[in-house]
Design goal:
With 147 residues, the chain is α+β, with helices and mostly antiparallel strands. The chain has four helices and seven strands. 39% of the residues lie in helices and 30% in strands. It starts with 13 loop residues before the first strand and ends with a helix.
């Protein structure tokens, strides 16, 4: 289990780690584009040096996008007794806090789509996207926020 205690404030305890279920089609789509880029090599070869540099740039960009998608599957939400904190993955071992929502300000919780949760906080909507076990997560949030 990962050590998320460095992201918690004083007297704040971790109740639940909400894992994000990224859609696999994004990774497969980028992989297919990468394969198509290799088939584009022959026409680019006849275009000369500029065609080769264009093809090489496309392949490098697609590799970086693929790596970013593979890293983003490690993004998590932390549900504590005071707030919901979103942690964006930098790599497999390090996260960066991106934002948080106070649990006491949550007015309403509803479902949105297949895997998303909508939180109404001070007349603003916040979405927890791509959650695994959405109904269990909603029950945990309701238990902490006393809605």
């Amino acid at each position: 289990m990962n050590n998320f205690s460095k992201f918690l404030n004083n007297k704040e305890e971790l109740k639940y780690v909400i894992r994000i279920n990224n859609q696999a089609y994004k990774v497969y789509f980028i992989f297919i584009l990468l394969i198509l880029a290799f088939f584009m090599l022959f026409p680019m070869w006849h275009a000369g040096r500029q065609g080769i540099w264009l093809w090489l740039t496309l392949v490098i960009v697609l590799i970086f996008v693929l790596a970013r998608q593979l890293i983003s599957k490690n993004n998590v939400y932390l549900l504590t007794n005071r707030r919901i904190l979103f942690l964006k993955a930098i790599n497999k071992q390090n996260w960066k806090p991106e934002g948080s929502v106070s649990v006491k300000n949550i007015r309403e919780i509803s479902t949105h789509g297949l895997n998303n949760i909508c939180l109404l906080v001070n007349e603003r909507k916040f979405y927890i996207t791509g959650t695994k076990n959405r109904d269990q997560v909603i029950d945990k949030i309701k238990a902490v926020s006393d809605i």
